[in-house]
Design goal:
By secondary structure, the protein is mainly alpha-helical. It is built from 15 helices and two strands.
Length: about 375
Amino acid sequence: MERTNLPPDVLRHKLLKDGALSISMGDSKTSSHNANRVSNHGVHMLCFDLHHLSRTWQFVILTIATFAFYLVYGYMQELIFRLEGFKPFGWYLTLLQFAFYSVFAFGEMQFKGDRLRKIPMRTYVLLAFLTVATMGLSNTSVGYLNYPTQVIFKCCKLIPVLIGGILIQGKRFSLYDISACLFMSAGLILFTLADSSVQPNFNLYGVTLISLALCADGVIGNVQEKAMKQHGARNTEVVLFSYGLGFIYILVGLALSGGILPAFTFCQQYPVETYGYAAIFSLTGYLGVNIVLTLVKSFGALVAVTVTTCRKAVTIILSFLFFTKPFTYQYLWSGLIVVLGIYLNLYSKNKQSWDARIESLLRRCGLHRRAVTHSAENIV
């Protein structure tokens, strides 16, 4: 063994430096595993802790819960606007929804004992405005558009979210992500054209409302993701302050426009069909918002929007089943384009593992014999 005559302090510094070097040049697979293990911590779905599950199961459970709550949410929303005479009161429904959300979030924060606000109030002022624009304009547009058409327009927010991720957070997306957004949006737009051809109900005012909601929706996911990651805020805090301030915005707006009294008088005549349905509508929406925020925080805005876009496609199918509408086969091949976009998005998130499996399958079939280096699997 080589001897050294270095002074003790210099020798100690050298050993520490060599040790740090050996750690930094360690097994990349182990580092990847540790990073994945750390990323699993802090993933909660409502009152359930999911950190002990793999990333695959976390994604599956959050996706199923998103589908379940938002399918009920969409059904109740369309049911409320089926009430004769309710069309002009979309902003009043949004006011009720924001009030319920604020109460639910406040109760949840009191139950958990987490009362400390982490995100600056100026950020919530912006988030509240975007939330009001997204949900208020979206709710109001249901009174002027076919529900499937309104949902299809909202599905096109994949592109604004992607652009917002580049401009707001400086993200870089692959060609597969961009192609997935284009395919999903194109397929859903063709779905809209099919709907217009068999059941025309095209209203320029409704299109303007949903288009503005779409722009706000494309920004809000990225603002939420950046603020939550930067300050480590919980979902409940974001919901409470975003919807609490949003409630004040809408209340002031309705008071100045004189829209509160007519809406209140109308809803008094149909308390079950308005306030009762609005309570169910708001509860399922609140639970869905919490889960989507968890998706945004854990997997990013683009993945979260992909999940919610697929959910909207299922909502459209159920809308045809529960509420009688004409049908055309153009819906089927338009849906296949959406499915292609979904698989492109999944492939972009799992490219290394999928390529390894495809390569392994080809070698088994004798079509390819080149050696394959298997990388750590990127689940989502």
